[in-house]
Specification:
3 helices, alpha+beta, globular, Gp3-like, 235 residues
């Protein structure tokens, strides 16, 4: 499935891609919760259910020692790392998936690519979200429109044998950057080496107040050389 929200608002640009699934050893997260309130991070937090994976992540990226947290899934260990960005291997363009989703308490109410809805009862129906990028964001904020759901599957370039990790984001900033990323992955059409990072963006409101937020960034570096046997090239 690919996002098509830019077809109704071409001046705002990007275009997404497809689906991928595999066994996972952990998740990279750009935030956590304090008293059930979401808090963003400037360095990666990794969760896993495997103590060996947690120890390996801690060894590679530093930070706090692995600790337990109140997970809703099987990834009951977390590592708050010191890494703002990590070098990853993306197997193919299909490892990057994007869609728009309207979430409800029981899960997804509807899914779309920005132009058409998807799902058993709604396949091919026109998207109910506003046409422009700005209006889409406003509707999502109100809870009446879909929001981005971007998922990336990857292995760590420092230790590909450790297993496959997953990163999921609802960042509108990431959506704006997806086009060039997808184009680069499509051009390589095979294992690609990339940076997965967290970038702090500072801005000033109309009232003059200073604010900042953290946005995830995917930067494709190039093809994984077969000479390196699937490992990251030495640069």
């Amino acid at each position: 499935m690919s996002l098509r929200i830019w077809e109704t608002d071409p001046e705002s640009a990007p275009k997404p891609r497809q689906r991928f699934s595999d066994d996972l050893v952990g998740r990279f997260r750009s935030g956590y919760q304090v008293n059930k309130r979401p808090m963003s991070l400037e360095k990666w937090r990794v969760t896993t259910g495997d103590p060996d994976v947690a120890d390996a992540v801690h060894s590679m990226f530093g930070g706090d020692a692995p600790q337990e947290w109140e997970a809703t899934g099987e990834d009951g260990l977390e590592v708050f790392t010191e890494a703002k960005r990590v070098k990853v291997i993306i197997d193919s363009p299909k490892a990057l998936r994007s869609e728009m989703v309207l979430w409800g308490r029981a899960g997804a109410i509807r899914r779309c690519d920005g132009v058409e809805q998807h799902g058993e009862d709604a396949e091919g129906r026109a998207c109910e979200c506003p046409a422009t990028y700005a209006d889409r964001k406003a509707a999502a904020t109100k809870g009446t429109g879909c929001q981005p759901n971007v998922t990336l599957f990857f292995t760590l370039a420092d230790d590909p044998a450790l297993g496959k990790f997953k990163f999921t984001s609802g960042s509108w900033s990431l959506v704006r950057d997806l086009g060039p990323v997808e184009d680069a992955l499509a051009a390589i059409d095979g294992p690609a080496i990339a940076w997965l990072g967290l970038e702090v963006v500072e801005f000033e409101t109309r009232e003059g107040a200073k604010r900042k937020f953290t946005k995830p960034v995917i930067e494709v570096i190039g093809r994984v050389s077969s000479a390196n046997n699937g490992e990251a090239p030495p640069f």
